[in-house]
Amino acid sequence: MDGAAIRYHSYERERFNKMSDPQLIRCSACGATNRVPLEKIGQGLRPVCGRCKTALALENKPVTVTDANFAAEVECSPLPVLLDMWAPWCGPCKMVAPVVEELAAEMAGRVRVGKLNVDENPATAARFCVQSIPTLLLLKGGRELDRIVGVQSKAAILQRLERVAA
Ligand SMILES: [Zn+2]
């Protein structure tokens, strides 16, 4: 990690009012690791690499969460996590899946989106007493802040998500 400084197009003059955990993003072009303050991303600003000025790619796909990686991917995440508890045989889960994909792209840098197969990962499903699927857990530091059970509209999910991502 070389800690290359990050620069933004339009807000060099802005002050940092609050500091949250920066996200570390590796530049796909030159390999430099950039520290990106999350509140800047939340304001819709696109970070570029401090070394080569290439636009940095934010994580925009759901990550696969398992019993084994729950601590690393969810508990240690500096971002709140939307965790889709699903199973391949579940019809309503298939209805929610595209919405979850869209939210991963739209909330990139603000909310981490994960998917957990409850059949393959019963320990995490039991830990959060998930009794029906789909269940969307909203977690921060591994702690449950909210949950959405059953199929809901994207707008409804987004509204609940904005509350925890503030
Ligand atoms: Zn670069």
Q: Helix/strand/pairing class, anyone?
A: alpha/beta
Give the proportion of residues in helices. Answer: 25-40%
Question: Could you tell me the mean pLDDT?
Answer: 85
Superfamily at the CATH H level of the largest domain? Glutaredoxin
CATH class of the largest domain equals Alpha Beta
Largest sheet: 5 strands, mixed
> What would CATH call the architecture of the largest domain?
3-Layer(aba) Sandwich
Cofactors, ions, other ligands: zinc ion
N-to-C span: 29 Å
Whole-number radius of gyration? 17 Å
Question: H/E element string?
Answer: EEHEHEHEHEEH
Q: Reading side by side through the largest sheet, how are the strands ordered?
A: 3-5-4-6-7
Low-confidence stretches: 1-19
How many domains comprise the coordinates?
2
Number of strands: 7
Using the alpha-carbon principal axes, give the shape.
Answer: globular
Strand content: 15-25%
What is the helix tally? 5
CATH topology term of the largest domain:
Glutaredoxin
